[in-house]
Amino acid sequence: MWVLKNVNDYFYSMNDFLGILSNLSEVTVPILDVSIPVSKYCKIDLSRYNASLAKIDISNPDSCQAYIDRVLALENCTIAYGGYLEKRNLYDRSERFSKASRNIHLGMDFWCKAGTAVVTPLEGTVHSFANNPDLGNYGPTLILEHQIAEHIFYTLYGHLSLISLDGLYAGKLFPKGSVLAFLGETEINVNYAPHLHFQIIREMGTYKGDYPGVCTQNDLEFYQNNCPDPNILLKF
């Protein structure tokens, strides 16, 4: 965590930052294969409060995928999205989350077939990358650094394919809309149905190739301030 010299300055900076993010586009910003129209995206609720999940072990990737497939079929869509600040049972199988009561999701998920291309919504350079292979983690992960006006911030892309990390190096430039990576299969993304975890991070601290994507209720205020809603930028 960082030290605030002046709380009022921090919240002014935060509001300024959110305003800049919001003003970057007036329309929806694609984050997966640009040949898939926005009309083929639909919302999905994977929170513990969704009654439809009461009898489903959502932490099982096969059960989770079956539910996602039902939602996509019902909506006649290709990609299901959502999840910012959802309290989920999705992480019950992973001790990294369950022992610490971490169950509040800090990013936005896009559930789609493995191998789907990920495109960057903003120009950025590679900050860091890593394969985080322990159960329940991100698997292959890429973090980009961005600068707009005086604001430096980061975007995290988790649950990628292993090949997505090939050829990367710190400082590599990715123009807006360029193919950044591809979604990984369940065996690679560490026990999840294929999807992209997308997260905006204001301050990275000492993290490289990783950053918490799930938090506890006690830590929510800090992480909500440091990881604003990605939909402010994407506008789904």
- SSE ordering: HEHEHEEEEEEEEEEHH
Using the alpha-carbon principal axes, give the shape: globular
Low-confidence stretches: 1-8
If you average the pLDDT, what whole number results?
Answer: 92
Task: Estimate the helix proportion, in percent.
Answer: 10-25%
Total of helices: 5
Strand content: 15-25%
- Please report the distance between the alpha carbons of the first and last residues: 30 Å
Helix/strand-derived category reads alpha+beta
Can you list the strand order of the major beta sheet? 1-2-4-11-8-7-6-9
Question: What is the rounded Rg?
Answer: 17 Å
Q: Biggest sheet: strands, sense, closure?
A: 8 strands, mixed
Number of strands: 12
Folded structure, characterized:
Helices cover 20% and strands 25% of the residues. β6 and β7 (139-148) form a beta hairpin. The strands form 3 sheets. The protein has an 8-stranded mixed β-sheet with strand order 1-2-4-11-8-7-6-9, with helices on one face. A two-stranded antiparallel ribbon has the order 3-12. Strands 5-10 form a two-stranded antiparallel sheet. It has 5 helices and 12 strands. The two termini are 30 Å apart. By secondary structure, it is of the alpha+beta class. Mean pLDDT is 92; it is low at 1-8.
